[in-house]
Amino acid sequence: MLVERKRPPHRTIRHAVRPMRRGRLSARGRRDRTLTGVLHRIGMRSWQMHLLSLATVDLCIALWIRAKTVDQEERGNAERRALFVGLWPPMFWLIGDALRHHEPR
């Protein structure tokens, strides 16, 4: 004995893709699941990400200086580590800018 399942009503793409409202609840009552929405809900604020960005600049400089003190065999690896950490500040700064949109003015 087969039971027919009822299909949900047909929805257009316009109905399915509604813009989210500033990280709170969407028009359909769902939570914002973007990275910045989640970070804001757990308590992260934009100033913290901006401060982290500036701290990673200091870390990059410290790693670069330390790379100059190690012997020649390990120097390339240490310099690559410093360059890798040097890529972090713009990322953290932009995440902080995106978090600012979730904060009340």
What is the 3D shape? elongated
Separation of the first and last Cα atoms: 60 Å
Strand content: under 5%
Summing up helix and strand content along with how strands pair, one would put the structural category as mainly alpha
Largest sheet report: none
> Average pLDDT across residues?
81
Give the helix level as a range of percent.
55-70%
Unreliable parts: none
Number of strands: 0
Order of SSEs: HHHHH
List keywords for this structure.
elongated, 105 residues, 5 helices
Short description:
With 105 residues, the chain is mostly helical. The chain has helices at residues 13-16, 35-41, 46-67, 72-86, 88-100.
Overview of this protein structure:
The chain has 105 residues and is mainly alpha-helical. Helices cover 58% and strands 0% of the residues. It is built from five helices and no strands. 8% of the residues are buried.
